[in-house]
Recover the amino acids of this structure.
């Protein structure tokens, strides 16, 4: 039985954010965590999805690989890592809908003291990756999480990522994360797992 449970709840349209999520999962598992990878679902009409080539097909493929996140997943987890592509400098509506669904757990105080972290991807180099990451810190604080930034606690952060969380730039081509991006993501998975273990055994709420 794993010593700590990590939920990675993300939204991804082309697979770039999904790739970061998988690397974070690798890092967490290397630290002994049990990991659940969950993809938030679309709620736009099919005709809207059809206007972007490959959107519906990619969504179907990712949904086969990853269940939708639930409030039970959040309650199970000792750490939650949230990931999203940037939408006008902030979180995607698909992931935000999942965050908003956690209100019942918030009322009961069931998220207090859990570790929380964030990651994202953008289409362009200055497309709002840091503003998106910081925008996700706000609900983590309201929900009672202990926010775990990447900082510059690993040499990988001097080559990629941000001090707020892992990130990637797809250059409007759905370019997969680079090896440096993935190295930061794996470090983030290790770091949040280590902090979650410490919090769990300290009894902090």
């Amino acid at each position: 039985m794993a010593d700590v449970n990590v939920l990675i709840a993300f939204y991804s349209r082309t697979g770039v954010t999904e790739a970061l999520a998988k690397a974070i999962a690798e890092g967490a598992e290397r630290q002994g965590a049990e990991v659940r990878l969950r993809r938030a679902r679309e709620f736009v009409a099919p005709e809207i999805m059809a206007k972007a080539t490959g959107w519906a097909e990619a969504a179907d493929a990712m949904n086969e690989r990853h269940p939708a996140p639930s409030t039970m997943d959040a309650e199970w987890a000792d750490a939650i890592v949230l990931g999203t592509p940037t939408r006008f400098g902030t979180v995607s509506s698909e992931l935000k809908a999942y965050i908003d669904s956690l209100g019942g757990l918030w009322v009961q105080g069931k998220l207090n003291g859990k570790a929380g972290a964030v990651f994202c991807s953008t289409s362009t180099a200055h497309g709002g990756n840091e503003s998106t990451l910081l925008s996700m810190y706000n609900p983590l604080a309201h929900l009672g999480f202990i926010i775990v930034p990447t900082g510059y606690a690993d040499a990988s952060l001097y080559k990629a990522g941000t001090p707020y969380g892992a990130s990637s730039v797809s250059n409007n081509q759905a370019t997969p994360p680079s090896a440096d991006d993935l190295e930061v993501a794996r470090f983030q998975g290790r770091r949040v797992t280590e902090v979650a273990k410490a919090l769990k055994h300290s009894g902090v709420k």
